[in-house]
Design goal:
With about 200 residues, the protein is of the alpha+beta class. The protein has a domain of about 130 residues: Nucleoside Triphosphate Pyrophosphohydrolase. Strands 4, 5, 6, 7, 8, 9, 10 and 11 form an eight-stranded mixed sheet that branches. The longest helix is centred in the C-terminal third of the chain and has 16 residues. The relative contact order is 0.18. Bound molecules: zinc ion (ZN). The site of zinc ion has 8 residues, from loops. Zinc ion (ZN) binds next to loops.
């Protein structure tokens, strides 16, 4: 199990690197030949250490007219409510990751209907993907990273206690779309002032 978000708020763009993971020699941070941006590169073994955005994948899971939310047991935003989500693992499909995170955080088994929201967060180099999903049974329990799990009707959603803007936006889209029984995939970028990086939400 991998802690969600913990590294990312502290290291939004490129995690600092001092030594080459291939040969152990010190690395330099400069533009490789033929490239157009700085990378960590090793002048000893000539490895270029690329870092690219990471994917967070999760589920907007429902049971009848209620949505499943998890109260976070870990920083950041401990005590605030979120959709079950986490970092995609290597070798894993995006929907598989969403199912896995829903099980790990909420001990809930769901069936995915379709991709629903995709958010680019360039200020922290993350892509969020949420799937619409249905619980197969109204059974759930707090996983290691959650202190509480609950189903909420629209009127009862703790809007002032949601952990992240992408959670609020996804829920707002969902209740709007549900009233029309039409769920187009929604994709957007959330641009946040870097100086407020640690305070957004
Ligand atoms: Zn090296």
């Amino acid at each position: 199990m991998q802690a969600l978000y913990t590294l990312d708020f502290a290291t939004p763009d490129s995690p600092e690197m001092n030594f080459c993971s291939a040969c152990g020699q010190p690395v330099v941070f400069r533009i490789p030949p033929g490239d157009d941006r700085e990378r960590y590169m090793c002048e000893h073994c000539e490895t270029v250490h690329y870092t690219n955005p990471r994917v967070v994948t999760g589920c907007l899971a429902t049971w009848e007219d209620r949505v499943l939310l998890c109260r976070r047991a870990i920083a950041p935003r401990r005590g605030y409510w979120t959709l079950p989500a986490g970092f995609l693992e290597n070798g894993e499909a995006a929907d598989e990751g969403a199912l896995r995170e829903t099980w790990e955080e909420a001990r809930a088994r769901v069936v995915i209907d379709d991709l629903y929201t995709v958010y680019s967060l360039p200020h922290i180099s993350q892509i969020y993907m949420f799937y619409r999903a249905r619980l197969t049974r109204p059974e759930f329990a707090a996983g290691e990273e959650s202190e509480d799990i609950a189903l909420f009707r629209e009127a009862d959603v703790p809007w002032q206690e949601l952990a992240f803007p992408v959670i609020r936006e996804t829920l707002e889209h969902y209740f709007h779309d549900r009233s029309r029984d039409s769920y187009p995939v929604r994709s957007s970028s959330l641009i946040v002032d870097p100086s407020r990086r640690r305070g957004w939400g």
